[in-house]
Each structure stands twice: as C-alpha cells, then as structure tokens.
Amino acid sequence: MTVRVGVIGAGMIGQDHIRRLTEVITGAEVVAVTDIDADRAAEVAARVGARAVATGADLIGQPDVDAVLVTSWGPTHAEHVLAAIAAGKPVFCEKPLATEAADCLRIVEAEQAAGRRLVQVGFMRRYDSGYRELKSILDAGGIGAPLMVHCAHRNPSVPESYHSAMAAQDTAVHEIDVLRWLLDDEIVAVQVLAPRRTRHAHAELQDPQIMLFETASGIRIDLEVFVNCQWGYDIQCETVGETGLARLPEPARATVRSAGTTRTAVPQDWRERFVTAFDVEFQEWIDAVAAGEPTGPSAWDGYAATVITDATVEALRSGRTVGVDMKDRPAFYAGGAR
Ligand code: NAI
C-alpha cells in the first residue's frame, strides 16, 4: 500500500522531508502541499507532481490525503495536529508538538478520545543507529543500572535571532527526548548553570549553558549546550552505570595522517550528522501508518518535552532548581512507545 501524504509547511525541513518521502524511502507519495506562502507551495508541489492547496484545513480534508506531515512554524503545529485528529488521519508533527504545554495536553486528550494512536512527533535521535545501540546495551543490563549521563550538544555557530531560551527549546529538547527514551525514566527537576560567556555569542545570549537534569530514579544528567563552539556539530553522550560505561559512537569518518598529525573530520551541521536517522524515522513512520498505527515518539512524549523545556527555561531565568510539573501519564500512553 502507498501512503499518500499531505504536507503543511514547505520551508527548509518540509522540503527536505518531501525529498525524503519521494526519493529516499519506499511506500509513500506526496499528493498535496500547503504553505502560507502560496508561491512556495505551488513551486514545491510542482517539483514532485503534487498539487498545492490553500490552507492546512483544506489539505487535511482532501479525500486522497491518507496521512499529514506538519512542518510549519512551531506555534501553528497544535491547530493542524488537532484538525488531523478530528479527521481521523495519522499526523507526523515536527518538533515541538506545540509551543504551549496546555496545547500539548489538548492534543493528548483529543487523541485518547479518538481511541487510537494517530500522532507521532519528530524526535529523530531515537532512529540514530548509535543511540539505538546505546539503548540496546542499557536495556540488556550491559553496564548495570545507569547512574550518571554526561552529554554535550555543540553547534559551530547560531544566527543573531537565537536567544538564551532557545538553548532549551530548540537545542536541548533533542537530548530531553532521547534521554527519557534511552533511560526509560522521567526527568523531574532541572538546574541551569551559566559559565563564562564565549565572545562568539551576541550580548543577549548565554552561551554556553550547563543543564543539570535529575530523573525520577535519581540518575543525574549533565548537558553542555554550546552553540557557538566554532569547531563543528558535536554530539556526545556517555552513560555511566554500576558496572560499565557506554558512549555514543562518533560518526564513521576516515582518519587522516599527514604533516605529523592525525585528523578526523567533525560534522558541520545536524543535517549531515542525523541524515540517516531522519531517513529511518520516515521509513518506519510510513511502514507503521500502512500497518495501522504509528509507533514512534508519541503526543505524550511531545507534551513531556515541552513541559521539561519550560522548566529548563525557568531554571536559567531564576538560577534555581526547578521541579518539572508534569501530569500523570494516562494508561493510553503506557509502555514507553506510546
Ligand atoms: P521554515 O521557516 O524554513 O519553514 C516553515 C514553513 O512553514 C514556511 O515556509 C512557512 O511559510 C510555513 N508556514 C508557517 N505557518 C504555516 C501555516 N499555518 N500553514 C502553512 N504553512 C505555514 O522552518 P523550518 O526550519 O523548516 O522548521 C519547521 C519546523 O520543523 C519547526 O517546528 C522546527 O522546530 C522543526 N525542525 C525540526 C528539526 C529536527 O531536528 N527534528 C530540524 C529543523 C526544524
């Protein structure tokens, strides 16, 4: 069966996912595209033989749209996801599920009322082979009970529009999701330390930041977010357990020896680092939709990420340790994958 997809938001990642759906993975076809920039929608749709439609609501209502991909701006996500649920159509929403926790809860409630999983949120690190290897080691008890995790999320540079809260909202949110999944544990409190600022950041941006998370079982996570590090897109994750240590593998790159030195290239951006994870994420989403129900990061995971992100922003602002004020997980989302 071919899953016919309608895409809301034909910007940077929307176009990349359309390429992925049409050129990289199997079992999918893009039939409709919408964007508030109608010219962009028309141009992107024409490229893949799809039609442009006027609005997200129009697109969701098209009878030949089997599943919806939301890649518009974050504050518009909730509206489109709720409309897709109301139409009973599976919807893949790029992160964040919604920028407000209350909107995430409305989505969670609507999905439960629909009685089956329809929503998947775009946390692609769960599809990275390195993180998957780490998870299988942890799940098999390969390092005993995890006690501490040391992480870093570094970008070479960010634009002037990037502000301090985005270190949590746009950057750390990926670790927040992948660590909840990796450890099968919930983050309950967060503190943010503000080291000496790099001179490569603009005056309003606290860069770097050290985020200290605590989980329900007492695991301590330290995450360095350093978005003007200059040298590359550098993702690190090391889990220390009672009997061993497991470290996220570096991306495979040749080692070059010349002029008396040994060199290995560091990826320069997230697209390069996680391109395969995105491909796997979409293949598995399409396969699951064709089989009946998505199985990846759920609306509940999207809610949890937004609540933890909010607590992290508040921890930076206040300088205090902030408890994560999360609702109890409904039975509908029990069992991790939900
Ligand atoms: P972008 O600004 O390049 O594209 C967004 C597009 O959505 C624009 O063409 C805009 O005109 C359109 N749009 C906005 N509101 C709309 C609406 N109501 N209806 C239809 N079209 C609308 O932004 P970008 O970088 O592509 O990001 C889109 C989303 O993807 C964001 O939520 C972002 O956080 C997420 N993202 C996720 C990544 C990941 O690592 N998983 C990486 C990059 C982006």
UniProtKB/TrEMBL annotation:
<feature type="domain" description="Gfo/Idh/MocA-like oxidoreductase C-terminal">
    <location>
        <begin position="135"/>
        <end position="323"/>
    </location>
</feature>
<comment type="function">
    <text>Involved in the oxidation of myo-inositol (MI) to 2-keto-myo-inositol (2KMI or 2-inosose).</text>
</comment>
<dbReference type="InterPro" id="IPR036291">
    <property type="entry name" value="NAD(P)-bd_dom_sf"/>
</dbReference>
<dbReference type="Pfam" id="PF02894">
    <property type="entry name" value="GFO_IDH_MocA_C"/>
</dbReference>
<comment type="similarity">
    <text>Belongs to the Gfo/Idh/MocA family.</text>
</comment>
<dbReference type="InterPro" id="IPR050424">
    <property type="entry name" value="Gfo-Idh-MocA_inositol_DH"/>
</dbReference>
<dbReference type="Pfam" id="PF01408">
    <property type="entry name" value="GFO_IDH_MocA"/>
</dbReference>
<dbReference type="GO" id="GO:0019310">
    <property type="term" value="P:inositol catabolic process"/>
</dbReference>
<dbReference type="GO" id="GO:0050112">
    <property type="term" value="F:inositol 2-dehydrogenase (NAD+) activity"/>
</dbReference>
<dbReference type="InterPro" id="IPR000683">
    <property type="entry name" value="Gfo/Idh/MocA-like_OxRdtase_N"/>
</dbReference>
<protein>
    <recommendedName>
        <fullName>Inositol 2-dehydrogenase</fullName>
        <ecNumber>1.1.1.18</ecNumber>
    </recommendedName>
</protein>
<keyword id="KW-0560">Oxidoreductase</keyword>
<dbReference type="GO" id="GO:0000166">
    <property type="term" value="F:nucleotide binding"/>
</dbReference>
<feature type="domain" description="Gfo/Idh/MocA-like oxidoreductase N-terminal">
    <location>
        <begin position="3"/>
        <end position="123"/>
    </location>
</feature>
<keyword id="KW-0520">NAD</keyword>
<dbReference type="InterPro" id="IPR023794">
    <property type="entry name" value="MI/DCI_dehydrogenase"/>
</dbReference>
<comment type="subunit">
    <text>Homotetramer.</text>
</comment>
<dbReference type="InterPro" id="IPR004104">
    <property type="entry name" value="Gfo/Idh/MocA-like_OxRdtase_C"/>
</dbReference>
